[in-house]
Write a structure and sequence with these properties.
This protein is mainly beta and 398 residues long. It has a single domain (5-396), classed as Porin (Beta Barrel). 4% of the residues lie in helices and 45% in strands. The protein is built from 4 helices and 17 strands. The protein has helices at residues 46-50, 113-116, 133-136, 139-142; strands at residues 5-12, 19-27, 74-75, 80-81, 89-100, 103-111, 153-163, 166-174, 205-216, 219-230, 268-282, 285-298, 303-317, 325-341, 352-361, 366-376, 387-396. The chain has a 15-stranded antiparallel β-sheet. Strand 13 and strand 14 (325-341) form a beta hairpin. It is globular.
Length: 398
Amino acid sequence: MFNNRVRLNLNTSFSGRDLLITGLQAYNFGASDSVPGLTVGSGTSLAQTVGLADPVFGSSSNLRLSYEPQFPAADPSTLTTRGAGNSINLYKLLYIFPVANTLTASVGTNAEVSDAFPSILPWASEGQGALSRFSLLPAAQRVSGGTSQTGLAAAAGLIFSPSPAIDIRALYGSVNANLPANLGLGALGTGGVTPLGAGVGGGSYVAAAQVTFKPSPAFNIGLNYANSYHQINILGTGLSSSDINSIVLPSTLTGTVPGFVGSLNDGIRLNTLGATASFRLAPNITIAGSYSYIFANLVDVDARTNFNSWLVGVQFGDVLRKGNAAGIVFGQPLKRVLTGGIAVNPENRIPYQIEGFFNFRVNDNLSITPGVFAIFNPEGSSANGTVVVPVIRSTFTF
């Protein structure tokens, strides 16, 4: 498969201390029309090609690339198409400004958690770092569409830096803040739906915080917490097919909404914990790891499911020549680990992933990153054979 993504960021400052970011992007990632009546015309996703994608949007899976949008072809807020491949869309509109010497604020109509919470992982770069979505950022930062790569949420945040050794950040994001009325699931595929709810407080939201400690220049620790709600039963990480119909109910109790499986039409509340650490062993060698745990509960039914994910890796800088980098990452993709109430767990194996990549900087404007990642027991099922994905990513920067 051949995919491309193009971004143009316009940076504007009014005082020299503030920054307005206006981001435009176009891409040709896509998925087929899994939702009845919804036509998307930008092709299929890698996960769908292999047969391991979620049953609704056809994209959420262990098999995701680092620079691939979470919902490439359909807007989950309204179940409408994002347009044909390489259509130009606004993916970021964010204003950052100082409030005091140690306090900075941000507000935007198109924003992501990653705009406010920088990652400690040394390979966390969509264009220069890891090749898979799993390796790039921890699940704790991706929950609730926090890193949709399409600017899914309207958000406001604060950054408090009382000293160089500590950094405290908080953010509130609302997916459908601009929609005045909650039309519910309605008739799917007709456009008269708001499956994620509406309004600043009445729709899907995420309230998140991150505290970063820097005991020494070589050692960083980050702690994450997020509280979120969705009107439908999704996690919003894009990391697994379990993102959709996250809490599975017995077949005799599942919903009857056309086009959806299981209990997708049930509201869900999430509490997410995460920890990330990195340590620079030598000037060009850094080891890092992260752990994420999600507590998920259906709102109207006694059904609970917990999820976890972890990874460890090492990155080598200036390999062969200055500016190059190589990395190896190993870990467990997102998996159901505990159920309660009437929830059931359809997964019977632990998935594992290993990835290796080499980022070669040809010059200041061009880098080429060949690599490969392999997933064992994809989507937590022994019925799924091992999948090996070789990737060559070329990044042009101007």
